[in-house]
Amino acid sequence: MRLPVMRRWWPTGLLALLAVAAVAHADIPLDQRRSSYADMNRDNRAMQDDDTSNPAMLSVLDGEALWSERTGASNRSCADCHGDAKASMKGTAARHPAYDEKHAKPVNLDQRINICRTERQRASPFAPESKDMLAISAFVAMQSRGEPIAPPDDPRLSPFREAGRMLYNTRQGQLNLSCGQCHDDNWGKSLAGNNVPQGHPTGYPIYRLEWQSLGSLQRRLRNCMIGMRAETFPYGALEYVNMELYLMWRARGMKLESPGVRP
Amino acid sequence: MARTLINVPAKAKRGEVIAIKTLISHVMETGFRHTNLGARIPRDIIDTFVCTYNGEEIFRAKLHPAIAANPFITFHTVATESGTIAFTWTGDKGFSATASAKITVV
After folding, report:
1. Of A135, A204, B29, B34, which sits most exposed with the smallest number of CB within 10 A?
2. What whole-number distance in Å separates Cα of residue B98 and Cα of residue B87?
3. Cβ–Cβ contacts within 10 Å for residue B81, how many?
4. For this structure, is A224 an active site residue?
């Protein structure tokens, strides 16, 4: 008689445990998501709002020049194929990372630009975080300003996005923290005097006042990993792209504000 | 040539106080930092900023190593007459940049 009772009790207990685990790592409800723009002080918000005081716009000007500069063995510029960036690049940043058929993996915006450079312009790729890479990336991303983040509905991306989600929820480093423990469970609180943001990639590449320069989302991810005292991946690693995929999905529908300013 | 961004109102009333905003791309290397091999990175900063209104100097700033990269300088002046507001930045290693904006005073 006892055995059937046990059988009935166990699945219920397991479900209860699973429910507790699910609550502990719940996603932020969609209507409670906020860009960390909203958490900045008035001066920093004003700096981002005005294109003549946003220092990232200096790089956008560089990027605009690069857009129409002929280069590489094919002696073509971005504009020769893509025309006016205002039309052709609208929404592009909101759709990346996207699946690349030829390389059979997701690529982010910077990697997409470098694929174009090496395979179509037949020029040397820009080094990660180099002045030119960030400039062209900021110029392209700016064309999507105000567009909602729209991760592509491509089933081939799913395993990569899931890998990103796994990494996001994996405890790492000497501090043994996962991304989610701060950005899902404790956003809005303080960490050593700083606001803990929700971590939505709405403004990349960002001009970070602390860096005194423009930087990519990968630089920001490395920054967090160093803070967790975890080992960083090299720039362009698939792990970062997976994470970007997950973060963009997490921020789906939020408006892009690139190039953003952050403290 | 360094990139500059200037914000001067295109139109103003005579006697109106107007805000002028300027931004210039510059590393503002302090001279206090070292490479990971220990070599000192020489100072490379903008040290002087001058603004003229129809040729007359109306604002001047002296910049120092503690000022962040891409200096943003904003100040106010009184719109007196139509003309050109010109800006000059000079600094280490013979750095020099200029920019200007037109203003119509009615």
Report:
1. B34
2. 6
3. 10
4. yes
ipTM of the modeled complex: 0.89
Structure tokens that stand for A66 in this block? 């690069």
Cβ distance B72 to A212 less than 8 Å, yes or no, reads: no
Q: How far apart are CA A138 and CA A143, in angstroms?
A: 9
Residue B66: count of CB within 10 angstroms of its CB: 9
Residue B21 near chain A (CB below 8 Å): yes
Q: Check B5 against A213: CB less than 8 A apart.
A: no
Chain B residues within an 8 Å CB radius of A51: 5
d(CA A245, CA A225): 17
Q: How far is A244 from chain B (nearest CA, A)?
A: 28
pLDDT tens track for A210-248: 999 999 999 999 999 999 999 999 999 999 999 999 999
Q: Residue A234, SS3?
A: coil
Could you say which of B3, B7, B24 has the minimum Cβ distance to residue A62?
Answer: B3
Q: How far apart are CA A160 and CA A240, in angstroms?
A: 10
Give the DSSP letter of residue A39.
Answer: G
Report pLDDT digits (tens) over A31-70: 999 999 999 999 999 999 999 999 999 999 999 999 999 9
Q: What is the pLDDT of residues B57-91, one digit of tens each?
A: 999 999 999 999 999 999 999 999 999 999 999 99
Residue A85: phi, psi to the nearest 5? Answer: -60, -30
Contact B5 A57 (CB under 8 A): yes
Q: Which chain A residues are Cβ-neighbours of B72 within 8 angstroms?
A: 47, 53, 55
Contacts of B69 in chain A (CB under 8 A): 212-213
Residue for token pair 């507001």: B85
> Considering the entire predicted model, what is its pTM?
0.89
